[in-house]
Every structure is written in C-alpha cells, then in structure tokens.
C-alpha cells in the first residue's frame, strides 16, 4: 500500500471525526474495523462496488456451511468485582479417557484434575479457540470464557454506568480471577491467552501472584505482548502510522458516541472490512475462506463503542515485571512471524524474561495464528499439557484441523 493511499484513508477518518459530517461514518467505521482486527486505521479503499453482490452471496454461503464456532460446553456465569456477569463454558474430561489423571483413589477423594483456562483476544470471543477446543475435547478439563463486553458476557458494568470507568488490563485480570473462582475453584491450572487474553493472564499474575504460585502449573502466551504496544507500526509507513496516532483518540471518541450510525457504516463497507480483517489477521494467501469469514463474524459482532472503550488500555499496558511469576513453571510463547498487530519481537521479549520458556515462531502466520495454523498451535499446546501431566504424552490431538 502506498504512503499516499494511507494518507488519504487517514484523512478521511480524521475528517469524519473533526467535521461531524457523519455521512462519512462508513469510511470511519471501516477504518475502525482495522482496530477491531487488533490493528490501526490506514488501508486504502478499493473494490467496494465491483462484484459486491457476488461477495455478499459468498459470505452468506460460508455462514451457512461453516462449522466453526459451533462447539458448546456446560455454561456458567461468574460475577466480576464490579458486578459484571462473565459467561464461561466448561468441557469436562471424557470418563473413558485413559491417563494417570483418571486413576482411582480408594478411601480418599481423588485430586482435582488440571483445568486449562483459555482467554481470548480483543474483539473476539471464546470461539476463537475452535480448533484447539475440537482437538482437546474430552482429553482435559477446559474452561473457555468471554471477556467483558464480548461474546455472551455482559457489557462491563463499570463501563456502562453513569461514571463510565475506562476499561483497563488490570480489570481484565480481576475478571479472570472471578472466572477461575467460579469454574475451577480448586486444582492445578494451565493459563492460555491470545493477544489481549495473554495480557489478561499477565494482569492476573501482577495482581494475584500468590494464585499463580500456588495453583498455576503451566502457561501459554500466544500472539501477545508485555508492553510497548505504542511502538507498533501495523505495517504502515512512518508518515501513515504517525498520522493515525495523531487522529485516533479523537476518532475513537467520536465513533463511540455515534455507535448506531457507525455500525451502519461498517455494514455498508463490508467488503473493505473483510479485506482489512484478512490483512491484519492472517498471512497465508491460501487461508480457508470459511476461516477468514469466521474471524470476520466474530469481529463484526463486537459493537463499535466496545471497540472504542477498550483500545486506550493497550497503550497503557505494561506487565513485563509480572512475567517472572511464571519462571518456575513450563511456559509456551508462540507467535506468527508476520503478525502485524503484536509482532513476533514482542513474543521474543517475553521469552527473554522467561529464559526457560519454549519460544515458537510459526512461519507464514499472522495475528490469528491459532485459526490460521491450528495444527501447529495445538501440537505445541498438547506438548505443554503433557509436560505438566494434564494429558498423556500419547494423546491424540489430530482433531486440530477439524470442526
């Protein structure tokens, strides 16, 4: 993308925010779609009209046929410290599964099994772990939850009340603790987080180190960062990213206050929105169209005011000092080599602070690496779970690429 086209897109967004001409909200809403993919505005507008009807029919066909996101478990709700209801689901171990964790303990209570808690990223939901869930189903006890204001969880009480407290990564750490207390009140834990979910795990460790020290036996940080996100350029030229950073705060405030209008704009620019999501979520040219559409649906489902109220928290995120809490347990740090949102250098920085961690950089992979290369991610997770005794070393995770 040329610097000129980037500047044109940024100028359009800035104009929509500064002039109040909300007819331009379609462009602004589309630009915020980049943020919804975990990126920043600034991709040229093209091919908005050519073949639009055909592409719409293709999206509908993919929605009808795609199996992704259809897995469900036993539902539950946790109550956050500000009263927000957080939705989670539990997949229990199949009683017929073999392995040391199923041994009988005559005359005394069997120890609680290892529970693996999955935390998803910004503008996604628990279904983003679809492939890993399909592969691990029945082999290990797992908890999948929706972050506040995402998926089936309620809108953040502190964010929707009269005082409008901004979302913070620290709050998400409190939310994870509430989910653990409700869904896995005892027994060892493995914490898995992607992007914002990894930051949530770090926030838990920062605020509740005793919980990690007493119960966490393993952790996985997937496509995430311990801080310095304000330095990410999202693949844009210097002039483009500087312009985005200059206008973005005002644009977000304006869009968040005009949610209904901007949502119409997002729908009107669905073709551009799909292109932005693919650019900032995936690297492979041959990514399954049904998987790309699945990611698009999750991000589309995140209201624009939620997109706006979460975004500032990332600039403030700095949890490098919390990482040593995980120094004594097996840790997996994994990222795509072409991640434009949380570049692989951020995962390398995490691994530098945890020198015993396993660092895996997946070739030809973008930000949603667990959807783009599910086998690679699931295999590494299975190895981690075998190391901590959560699954047998011979566990079959061949379902990683299935629905």
TrEMBL record:
GO terms for molecular function: hydrolase activity. Keywords: Hydrolase, Membrane, Transmembrane, Transmembrane helix. The keyword Amino-acid biosynthesis does not apply. It comes from the Bacteria. The keyword Membrane applies. InterPro entries: AB_hydrolase, AB_hydrolase_1, AB_hydrolase_fold. Residues 115-374 form the AB hydrolase-1 domain. The chain crosses the membrane at residues 27-50. SUPFAM superfamilies: alpha/beta-Hydrolases. Pfam families: Abhydrolase_1. This is Alpha/beta hydrolase. It comes from Streptomyces albipurpureus.
């Amino acid at each position: 993308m040329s610097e000129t086209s980037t500047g044109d897109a940024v100028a359009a967004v800035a104009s929509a925010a500064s002039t109040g001409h909300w007819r331009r909200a379609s462009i602004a809403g589309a630009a915020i779609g980049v943020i919804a993919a975990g990126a920043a505005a600034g991709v040229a507008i093209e091919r908005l009209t050519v073949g639009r009807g055909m592409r719409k029919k293709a999206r509908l066909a993919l929605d009808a046929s795609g199996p992704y996101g259809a897995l469900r478990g036993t539902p539950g709700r946790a109550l956050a410290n500000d009263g927000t209801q957080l939705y989670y689901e539990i997949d229990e171990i199949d009683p017929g599964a073999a392995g040391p964790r199923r041994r009988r303990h005559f005359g005394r209570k069997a120890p609680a099994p290892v529970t693996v808690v999955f935390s998803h990223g910004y503008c996604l939901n628990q279904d983003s772990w679809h492939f890993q869930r399909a592969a691990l189903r029945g082999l290990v006890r797992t908890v999948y939850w929706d972050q506040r204001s995402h998926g089936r969880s309620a809108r953040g009480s502190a964010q929707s009340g009269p005082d409008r407290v901004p979302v913070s990564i620290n709050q998400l750490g409190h939310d994870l603790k509430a989910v653990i207390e409700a869904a896995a009140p005892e027994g060892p834990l493995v914490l898995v987080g992607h992007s914002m979910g990894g930051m949530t795990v770090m926030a838990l460790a920062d605020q509740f180190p005793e919980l990690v020290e007493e119960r966490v036996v393993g952790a996985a940080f997937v496509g995430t960062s311990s801080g310095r996100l304000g330095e990410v350029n999202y693949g844009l030229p210097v002039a483009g990213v500087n312009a985005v950073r200059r206008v973005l705060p005002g644009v977000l405030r304006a869009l968040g206050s005009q949610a209904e209008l901007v949502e119409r704009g997002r729908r009107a620019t669905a073709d551009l929105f799909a292109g932005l999501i693919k650019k900032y979520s995936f690297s492979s040219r041959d990514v399954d169209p049904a998987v790309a559409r699945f990611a698009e649906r999750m991000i589309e489902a995140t209201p624009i005011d939620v997109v706006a109220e979460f975004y500032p928290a990332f600039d403030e995120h700095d949890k490098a000092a919390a990482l040593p809490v995980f120094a004594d347990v097996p840790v997996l740090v994994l990222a795509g080599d072409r991640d434009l949102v949380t570049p692989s250098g951020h995962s390398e920085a995490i691994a530098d602070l945890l020198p015993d961690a396993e660092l895996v950089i997946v070739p030809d992979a973008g930000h949603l690496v667990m959807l783009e290369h599910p086998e690679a991610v699931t295999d590494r997770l299975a190895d981690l779970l075998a190391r901590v005794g959560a699954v047998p070393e011979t566990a079959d995770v061949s379902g990683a690429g299935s629905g």
